[in-house]
Write a structure and sequence with these properties.
Low-confidence stretches: 1-14, 430-436
Largest sheet: 5 strands, antiparallel
CATH architecture of the largest domain: 2-Layer Sandwich
CATH superfamily of the largest domain: GAF domain
Mean pLDDT: 86
Strand order of the largest sheet: 2-1-5-4-3
InterPro entries: GAF, GAF-like_dom_sf, OmpR/PhoB-type_DNA-bd, WH-like_DNA-bd_sf
Protein name: GAF domain-containing protein
Number of domains: 3
Structural class: alpha+beta
Radius of gyration: 24 Å
Keywords: DNA-binding, Transcription, Transcription regulation
Organism: Streptomyces nigra
Length: 437
C-alpha cells in the first residue's frame, strides 16, 4: 500500500514504518483509525489510510484468534521471572538500555520495556505514574505481548516482522491499548542473527514521531554492538543453533560447543529439526535415500554414529527425534519471509541449503526455500536486493531475477548479462539448466 498524501497535497516521502506522516493532525488520525478498526473487527476489511504493516498485523492477529477486547496474560512471575531474566542474553545489555533510554523515559513520562523473542515482557521501567496506568492493561514484566496473544503492538510486532516498527493509538488491535503509542526495534544475537527480543519505548501520542522510531533502532544497534564486544555466552535459555545454509556440512552450536556434522548427519539433523514430533525409520529412509535398496540397517548405523557425535541427551529414538528444540538458519529465513520481512530474510540467507545434498526431502526443502525468497525479491523490486541475489553464485544464472533487475536497474552491465542469459536459453532450449538448489 502506498503512503497517503499529506493534507497539503504533497506526496508523502516518510518511512511507511512511521505512524504519522508530516503535517498529519493526530486527533483526526485517531478518529480515522478508530473507524477503520471498527470496520475491520466487524467485517474483516481494512480501509485506507491504515498502513500496510498495521493492516497485515491486524490480519495476523485475527487469524491467531485475538479479540479486540482481550488482555495480556502474565506467564512469568516472582521467582520464575527473576531466574528467566537473569539467564536471558538481554540481561547483559540492560545497563546500556537504562543509560541510553532511562532519562528519556522518566522525563517524558514514558516507559522503557524489553521483551524476549516470544513477546514476553522482561523489564518495564520508567515514569512511576505511567507505570501505574500500564499496570491496568497488564503491560508488566512477565506478561506475554506477542501478536498472537494481544494483537498489534510495537514490541510484539517488532519480533514478529523482525524490524523496527511504530504503533500509534488505534493502530493497536486491542481497544484498551489504543490510548498508547509505542516504538520498538528487534535486537539480534550478533553471532547468529537470531532475534533475542526487542527494546521498546511506550507512552503518549508524542511518541508518534520519526525520532522515536530512529531512537529505538539506534539503541537496538548499540545493544548488538555491545553484545558483540562482550563475546559469546553459554546461554542456557537459548536453543541449540543449526547452521546449514550455504554449506555442505552443517554446524551445530550446543552450549558453546561447535559440532561439525558429516554430510549425511547434516541431512538427518536438518530433517529432524523440521520435524520436532520425530520421524520413523521408514520415513527417514524415504527422506534421505533415492535408492530404495538401502536397508534400515544402514540407517540405524548412521544414527548410532550421530548419537555418539551429539551425545545421548540430544538424539532420541522411537521415533527418531531431537530431544531439545533446535533453532536453524532455515527456520529464521522462513519466519522472516512469512512475516514479509524480505530484507531481513535475504540477509539471513547464506546460500542454498546443503547444496551438495541429493537427499529427496532436503532437495525439496532447498528448492522451496530458494524459490520462496527469490519470488519475494522479484515482487519487492528492490534493486540492491535483486543485485545481491543475481551476483551471488546461486543467482548468476537466474533469468527471472536478472529480468527483474533489468527493469529497476537497467545499466549496460545488467542488460549485457541478461542478453547473454537469454541467448544461452534460446540457443540450447532442450538443455536442462543447471540449478544450485
Amino acid at each position: 500500500m502506498s503512503p497517503a498524501a499529506s493534507p497539503s497535497g504533497e506526496a508523502d516521502v516518510s518511512d511507511p514504518w512511521v505512524a504519522l506522516e508530516p503535517g498529519t493532525d493526530p486527533a483526526e488520525r485517531v478518529r480515522v483509525l478508530r473507524r477503520a478498526h471498527e470496520t475491520f473487527t466487524a467485517v474483516g476489511t481494512v480501509p485506507r489510510p491504515v498502513r500496510a504493516v498495521v493492516a497485515d498485523s491486524w490480519r495476523r492477529s485475527a487469524r491467531a484468534g485475538v479479540g479486540p477486547d482481550g488482555t495480556a496474560s502474565v506467564e512469568l512471575a516472582d521467582g520464575d521471572l527473576g531466574t528467566y531474566r537473569a539467564e536471558h542474553p538481554l540481561a547483559r545489555v540492560m545497563p546500556l538500555f537504562r543509560e541510553l533510554m532511562g532519562t528519556f523515559a522518566a522525563d517524558g513520562e514514558h516507559l522503557l520495556a524489553v521483551c524476549d523473542a516470544h513477546g514476553r515482557l522482561l523489564w518495564v521501567e520508567g515514569h512511576l505514574a505511567t507505570r501505574r496506568k500500564a499496570d491496568r492493561m497488564n503491560f508488566v514484566p512477565g506478561a506475554r505481548w506477542a501478536e498472537t496473544a494481544v494483537g498489534t503492538n510495537a514490541p510484539g510486532t517488532a519480533v514478529a516482522v523482525d524490524r523496527p516498527v511504530q504503533v500509534f493509538a488505534a493502530e493497536h488491535f486491542i481497544r484498551r491499548v489504543q490510548p498508547w503509542t509505542c516504538a520498538a526495534a528487534p535486537v539480534h544475537d550478533p553471532r547468529t542473527g537470531r532475534v533475542l527480543g526487542a527494546v521498546d519505548i511506550t507512552g503518549g501520542d508524542g511518541l508518534a514521531h520519526p525520532h522515536s522510531l530512529g531512537f529505538v533502532q539506534a539503541v537496538a544497534r548499540a545493544a548488538e554492538s555491545h553484545l558483540a564486544l562482550l563475546g559469546p555466552q553459554n546461554d542456557p535459555v537459548g536453543a541449540p543453533e543449526l547452521t546449514a545454509l550455504g554449506r555442505d556440512e552443517a554446524q551445530l552450536l550446543v552450549a558453546g560447543r561447535r559440532i561439525r556434522l558429516s554430510r549425511r548427519h547434516s541431512e538427518i539433523v536438518v530433517l529432524l529439526a523440521r520435524h520436532p514430533e520425530g520421524l520413523t525409520g521408514d520415513e527417514l529412509l524415504c527422506a534421505l535415500y533415492e535408492d530404495e535398496s538401502v536397508t534400515p540397517v544402514t540407517l540405524r548405523a548412521e544414527l548410532a554414529r550421530l548419537r555418539r557425535t551429539l551425545g545421548p541427551t540430544l538424539l532420541g529414538s522411537r521415533p527418531y527425534r531431537l530431544l531439545v528444540p533446535v533453532e536453524s538458519d532455515v527456520s529464521v529465513v522462513e519466519r522472516r519471509l512469512e512475516a514479509g520481512a524480505v530484507t531481513a530474510a535475504a540477509t539471513a540467507y547464506a546460500g542454498p541449503l546443503l547444496p551438495g545434498s541429493q537427499a529427496p526431502a532436503v532437495v525439496r526443502l532447498r528448492r522451496r526455500l530458494a524459490d520462496g525468497l527469490r519470488t519475494a525479491l522479484i515482487a519487492r523490486r528492490d534493486p540492491d536486493l535483486l543485485a545481491d541475489w543475481a551476483h551471488a553464485p546461486w543467482g548468476e544464472d537466474d533469468l527471472d531475477v536478472w529480468r527483474a533487475l533489468a527493469t529497476v536497474r537497467p545499466t549496460s552491465a545488467v542488460r549485457s548479462r541478461l542478453a547473454a542469459l537469454e541467448h544461452e536459453l534460446t540457443a540450447e532450449p532442450v538443455r536442462e539448466r543447471r540449478s544450485p538448489w
